[in-house]
Amino acid sequence: MKGRNARVYAAVQRIPRGRVATYGQIADLVGLGKMARQVGYALYALPDHAAVPWHRVVNARGEISRRGVPGSESEQRLRLELEGVRFDGRGRIPLARFRW
User: Fold this and answer.
1) Residue 4 has what pLDDT?
2) DSSP bridge partners of 99
3) For 33-94, where are the alpha helices, taking DSSP H only?
């Protein structure tokens, strides 16, 4: 599992500032095929101090996925907005514009 997580982290680190990728997109990049959920598990296991831009990964609808940690969705949105990523009125990121 450590090798898989390391591949996920390396791919996420390649996402440029002001861009996002989907869980499925990262899964494809690291050879996990349709196992987008495994990307979510890897990011959940990320230590708090890690320098991986986890906030740049969103779901296939361009939405921030709900998490078990209170406030993490707000933190993710704030981080993305500070990088210039915009949300529409439904809280979605226009992937055609911001997808990596």
Assistant:
1) 87
2) 20
3) 36-44, 72-82
46, two tokens: 């990320």
Give the predicted TM-score (pTM) of the model. 0.92
pLDDT in tens, 17-68: 999 999 999 999 999 999 999 999 999 999 888 999 999 999 999 999 987 7
- Which tokens hold the place of 31? 């050879």
Rounded Cα gap, residues 60 and 21, in angstroms? 9
Token duo for residue 55: 């906030």
Give the Cα separation of 69 and 42 in Å (integer): 15
In the numeric block, which tokens belong to residue 76?
């993710």
Q: Which residues contact 8 (CB under 8 A, 6 or more apart)?
A: 26, 30, 38, 39, 42, 43
> What are the backbone dihedrals phi and psi of residue 99, each rounded to the nearest 5 degrees, phi first?
-70, 140
